Structure prediction request, 284 residues.
Amino acid sequence: MSIEKNTRKLDEGIVRDFSSRMSYASYLQLPTLLSAQHPVSQPEHHDEMLFIIQHQTTELWLKLVLHELRSTAAWLRDDDLGSALKGIARVKHIQKTLTEQWSVLATLTPTEYSQFRGFLGHASGFQSSQYRAVEFILGNKNAKMLSVFESDPEAHAMLEQLLHAPSIYDEFLAYLARQGFDVPTSVLERDVTQAHEFTLELVPLFKHIYENAADNWAAYEACEELVDLEDNFQLWRFRHLRTVQRTIGMKTGTGGSSGAAFLQKALELTFFPELFAVRTEIGQ
Prediction:
């Protein structure tokens, strides 16, 4: 087939009248979505649109991450490991997209950002309730974070619920116990409102799984998927830190945090510490 005048003809069957039909724009509510960017700088700075869209798209992806992780937790409770691993696999792809997005924001130079940063007031990514929710559901619980969201009842209630709910790791360990693995009772009955801390008694369990992978393939695969999940999260944290450093250096954050120094500390947080510690023990 040839194209005349470099112009493609429309197929006869293409729907053109949407006066009484649902269209692409109406299904996705594009008028609402695309009208949600409101720069506050005066006069409006060209690069503020980048800053807004970067963070809005991040929040959309975080919404999907939470959707998948909530379902993953439910599947683990139902001993449906296959569906749980599918959910984690999707989250891993989203994480890669989120990490790559930092390269777009990194095109914002320090000079450009400084010209509209003052208009942001105290607004900061530190106040992202969805990001905190992801941390909570993965196990980095911190009840003190809830105070940041007291003026937002809906966000506060969401985080309060996740604070008291078992994390993905809690659900996985409970799943292993139901499958006959020797999970310490102290782990199964721990206070889930606290961040999971390294538990030496779990290391022999994971060593057994790894050294007998053929006989415990489902558990072994799940362990590696969780390791991927944490690796991806740490890469996101690192890219966040480096983007902040190249944009504002060591200035304090707009939300009052110490900025890059605060983000640096986040790299010391871990979700599944025993899954990394066991690597030292394998083969010994």
Summary: The mean pLDDT is 94. DSSP finds 13 helices and no strands in the chain.
